[in-house]
């Protein structure tokens, strides 16, 4: 039985892993609560998450906005514009324990990276609001910049080339099951993120010394 390849690199998604992402946090107190509840409902009746996914895949807000007006009307479209223009309000905090985990990984000699589905128009807000992330991560692949996105294999392969990753020596954390499966499909170790303590346990299960 061959020995497991030592882990050298740990890659993190951003929203829902490093950062608390809450559309509600941007809209509550600005709109009537009943409207906020409708926009943020799981079945996405106003298309916010659908349109944001398009931005994450590389489309520009200016090109998407006419579709929002046509499909959901001017009132919803104006709220979507407000949301994008005030995106930092939807990122109220780093998730508990994650800054410490990234720091501990760096101190232990692991290389730490980011891989996120995020619009090229709003990603800068993450580093502006949480500059410690830019300091703790050696680099980040952003879907909206590359015009490719998780869970498709091409974005994981791009990260491998850009960061010099060896699949068997790489661990990935994402809060979305399909993105975890995408990483596993290209040979990475990957876990669905729940919280920092579970992530530490997952890393220790692969022999990482933390």
UniProtKB/TrEMBL annotation:
<dbReference type="Pfam" id="PF00702">
    <property type="entry name" value="Hydrolase"/>
</dbReference>
<dbReference type="InterPro" id="IPR023214">
    <property type="entry name" value="HAD_sf"/>
</dbReference>
<dbReference type="GO" id="GO:0016787">
    <property type="term" value="F:hydrolase activity"/>
</dbReference>
<keyword id="KW-0378">Hydrolase</keyword>
<dbReference type="InterPro" id="IPR036412">
    <property type="entry name" value="HAD-like_sf"/>
</dbReference>
<dbReference type="InterPro" id="IPR006439">
    <property type="entry name" value="HAD-SF_hydro_IA"/>
</dbReference>
<protein>
    <submittedName>
        <fullName>Alpha beta hydrolase</fullName>
    </submittedName>
</protein>
